[in-house]
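Example 9 (inverse folding). The structure is encoded as follows.
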């Protein structure tokens, strides 16, 4: 995340920032309430049979696209303001010097509110090592940050309700905490690349964050431009795939391979399918929505989603710059076991 204090042009004149925020919130809520009738009216104007596969797919796409983008814009703006308190330096300062266990929990929780993704994996990893953050604690953060972020939780809440969002939050934090703690117990620091361990240690001092409300509003705007600007193609691709599943994939077929009565290997296969996918929470959640609508089991779908976000092949390639192969395989194996356990347990319970 950019440091808004280092950029004087963000100091925009705004005499009543609170009133502006309130007005923006009201406009956002009003537009969100109009999405469903507007999208339905638009579909009715098209020469399509709503009951046909194409009509069903088009209706899914026209409703979900503005809904997801509006949710994403609102939440990223709010979290951009929140994230102005959590620069990488401040995050390292909060984690350095704490005992393992407590630090694992704190690191996983910080992953929810910090705007770091797989693209930031290498510089963050190096910064944590230099600040003396234990290896297992670093992994708890690196698992939680992409998997249990505000984008994933907001989209899940908007599409499935608070129970599914809370369930995913609890599962994601559990995987991040337990996997990080386990990796810390294995004492695998010798499998860091030599150039990483030879870097000098630095003291992670928490900088002063004396920003005004206007500057934090600008930080929210910057976050919207950066994050939404980066992920909107993935959103469109994900919603298009979800629309295709919604319109053309037979419900009986999907239930047979991913439903509650599917064979035991459905969960491992879902995890394996998710690893090579190059997308993020914004892109995969519309696919998840369509799979669930077709009768797929929640545990299997959650396992698929977690593997896409936390075990993506591009992130493993990025981490190879700082981790030796054995540590990468151990990390991936432990996280995969946690994800498989999530899938099996919730398929059994729900």
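The amino acid assigned to each position is listed next.
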């Amino acid at each position: 995340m950019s440091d808004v204090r280092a950029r004087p042009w963000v100091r925009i004149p705004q005499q009543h920032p609170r009133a502006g925020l309130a007005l923006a919130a009201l406009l956002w809520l009003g537009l969100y309430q109009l999405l469903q009738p507007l999208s339905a009216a638009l579909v009715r104007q098209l020469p399509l049979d709503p009951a046909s596969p194409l009509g069903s797919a088009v209706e899914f796409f026209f409703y979900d696209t503005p809904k997801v983008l509006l949710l994403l814009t609102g939440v990223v703006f709010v979290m951009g303001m929140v994230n102005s308190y959590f620069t990488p330096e401040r995050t390292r300062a909060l984690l350095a010097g704490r005992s393992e266990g407590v630090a694992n929990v704190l690191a996983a929780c910080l992953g929810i509110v910090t705007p770091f993704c797989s693209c930031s994996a290498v510089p963050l990893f190096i910064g944590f090592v230099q600040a003396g953050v234990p290896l297992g604690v670093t992994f708890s953060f690196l698992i939680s940050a992409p998997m249990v972020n505000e984008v994933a939780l907001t989209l899940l809440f908007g599409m499935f309700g608070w129970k599914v969002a809370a369930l995913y939050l609890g599962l994601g934090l559990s995987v991040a905490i337990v996997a990080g703690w386990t990796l810390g117990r294995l004492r695998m620091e010798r499998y860091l690349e030599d150039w990483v361990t030879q870097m000098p240690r630095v003291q992670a001092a928490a900088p002063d964050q004396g920003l005004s409300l206007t500057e934090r509003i600008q930080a929210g705007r910057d976050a919207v431009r950066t994050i939404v600007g980066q992920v909107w193609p993935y959103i469109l691709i994900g919603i298009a795939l979800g629309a295709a599943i919604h319109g053309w994939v037979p419900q009986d077929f999907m239930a047979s391979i991913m439903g509650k009565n599917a064979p035991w290997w459905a969960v491992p296969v879902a995890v394996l399918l998710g690893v090579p996918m190059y997308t993020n929470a914004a892109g995969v959640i519309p696919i998840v929505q369509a799979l669930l609508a077709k009768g797929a089991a929640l545990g299997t779908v959650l396992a698929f989603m977690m593997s896409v976000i936390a075990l993506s092949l591009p992130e493993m390639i990025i981490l190879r710059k700082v981790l030796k192969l054995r540590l990468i395989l151990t990390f991936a194996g432990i996280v995969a076991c946690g994800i498989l356990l999530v899938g099996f347990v919730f398929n059994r319970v729900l």
